[in-house]
Amino acid sequence: YAQAREVYLLAAAHAQRAKAFFVLDGFVTDHFIVLQRESALLGTLLALDPDANRRIAMQKRRIALLEPPLAQLNEKAYTQIFRQALFDVASIRSEMLEAKAQMHGSEPAPRLEAGVDAY
């Protein structure tokens, strides 16, 4: 994990420089590509982290990367990027929910599974 963290820190520094160059106002597509790659870096790092609380914190950081630009983005002009970012945020939240359920040893309610199976 320590070696992976060092690689992540180096890559995150490059991502920060890329975000400074590809600002959201003017380089929307490129900015979101950088955000998605930084989120993927965190996702890879959290898969290697043995600490469950730190994994949850990394998931929250991934959400914090992707959500704020959505408020500034015109959904009609950038439909594909907007939807992809929403999907990514929803996937991260789903992973967080699963991780928290595993931490607390709880299973989903049976009625929820039955409702999902109906579709």
UniProtKB/TrEMBL annotation:
Annotated Gene Ontology cellular component terms? cytoskeleton
Keywords attached to this Swiss-Prot or TrEMBL record, sorted alphabetically, are: Cytoplasm, Cytoskeleton
Signal peptide range: none
Asked if the keyword tRNA processing belongs to this entry, the reply reads no
Main location class = cytoplasm
Q: Which Pfam families match?
A: KBP_C
Q: Subcellular localization, per the record?
A: Cytoplasm, Cytoskeleton
For this protein, the record's InterPro entries field holds: KBP
Q: Does the keyword Repeat apply?
A: no
The record's similarity note reads: Belongs to the KIF-binding protein family.
Q: What is this protein called?
A: KIF-binding protein
> Which organism does this sequence originate in?
Coccolithus braarudii
